Amino acid sequence: MKKIVLFIISVIFSLNISFSQSTNGPTVDSAAPLLFIKEALNEKYNSTVFKNKVVVIDFWATWCAPCIAGFSHYNNIITKYSNNNEIVFTSISDEKKEKVSTFFTRTKKELKAKNLLDDSSKTFNAFNVNSIPLTVIIDKKNKVIWSGISTELTTGIIDSVMHNIPLSKKSSINEIPYENNSQAISVNNNADFQLLIYKSKDSSKESNSSIGTSTKNGDYNIFILQRGELLNTIGLLTNINSNARLIVNNKEKSAFKVNIFFKTPTIVDSSLINLYVPGKANTNLILTSLSKSYNFNLQVKDKITQGYELVCIDSNKLKKFESLNSKKNVLKEDIYGVIHSSTSDETNGFVEIVNKNIYQIASFLEDFIKSPIKNSVSEKFSDEFYDFTLNVTSIENINKQLLNYGLQLNPITTSFKMCYVNFQ
After folding, report:
1. What is the rounded average pLDDT for all residues in the chain?
2. Which DSSP string do the residues of 215-254 spell out, in sequence order?
3. Contact 56, 145 (CB under 8 A)
4. CATH of the domain at 123
């Protein structure tokens, strides 16, 4: 399973960067914090239901695509304990009841756990929830026994807790390792900017990158990447899908991961403004440094090839799925609200897409069909943000799902923007 950790960058000044470990969730073997539950969805909340029970808590939100994708896994586990009165399964969101209720009504999705609400976020804070999905198990003595990624929860873990069998202290999410910069390949450090590129020590094929970015006027002023696969990194920086539009002459030379640290308060070199990505001088600076560090030539140019065209065939259907977490909807609830968007990995053939516009959805789908997609949906609808659930096992199944949203993919031969990576 692909594991991507998103983290928020605060302030990093020194070039001698040391990435410390990031913690998420409560401390295992500590006393469980209090639950600050306001109410339950579709039932009356009674805190005594937890008394003398093993309690499993799944922290989630309607903006968290991986959380939504994990519903089926969590439901399957709950079903296996449906006749066991010694355990209680819960899910907690810190969102408003109206939003959560609308989510379930619109998506027709189901959570078999007790669906609890805490829009004060006090429970999230008490449990040190810094990223989701996150699941916590509390034993009958009110001690935290396990904390980890929701999809890694197993019946074996639960059975061990039920029978007081000690678990391994290793947590799947409590510690996120970062690498130091001891083997730098390219270093630039002056008053205007800091740029550091070095080869990751991680040689595994597992996708486990972490990234933190900040943009100013549409261009990066902070770009910090750990364990990024080189071709995916190029695709990310050029905004060209690496699975559908990136052509490389030597995949063996590109089969490694890179770490990048870039920070600047301004545009570093305006002469690079249109080199690869139009209007993004700092992005082009990072790409230029990458190409020099790893000795490849980079070209972004049009090519006539086969692909697909995304069209809107029913705008009324599409409008029904405007995101619950779009900027305009979030700011209606709270003028200081945080805007979230996300996608999930493929789970049982399906992916979740939350708060993405049509351009982003088209690019995301290129990952699965391995062909470029031309977006022909009108700008009026393309600029809006949507929530989708899609079966991505085949182009036929993708199209069946897209019809639910008033969209369709049609074969086309036309000019697509492609990225060429030629190693020397």
Report:
1. 86
2. EETTEEEEEEEEEEEHHHHHHHHHT--TTTSEEES-TTTT
3. no
4. 3.40.30.10
Reported as a single tens digit per residue, the pLDDT across 128-155 is: 998 899 999 999 999 999 999 888 999 9
Question: Dihedral of CA 399/402/406/407: which sign?
Answer: negative
Query: What residues make up the domain containing 366?
Result: 305-423
Q: Are residues 136 and 50 in the same domain?
A: yes
Of 294, 328, 354, the residue at which a domain comes to its end is: 294
Task: Give every CB contact of residue 24 below 8 A, 6+ residues apart in sequence.
Answer: 128, 129, 130, 131, 134, 147, 173, 174, 176
pLDDT tens, position by position, 370-415: 999 999 999 999 999 999 999 999 999 999 999 999 999 999 999 9
**The total number of structural domains that make up the chain:** 3
Preceding amide of 265 cis, omega within 30: no
Using alpha carbons only, give the angle 162, 166, 169 rounded to the nearest 5 degrees: 125
On whether both 197 and 282 belong to a single domain, the answer is yes
As given in the structure block, the two tokens for residue 389 are: 């659930």
Query: Which of 107, 131, 162 is a domain's end point?
Result: 162
pLDDT number for residue 19: 38
Residue 174 carries which DSSP code? S
pTM for this predicted structure = 0.82
Report the pLDDT averaged over residues 232-252.
92
417, amino acid identity? K
pLDDT (tens digit, 9 = 90+) per residue, 272-318? 999 999 999 999 999 999 999 889 999 999 999 999 999 999 999 99
Per-residue pLDDT, 333: 66
Whether pLDDT at 104 is above 90: yes
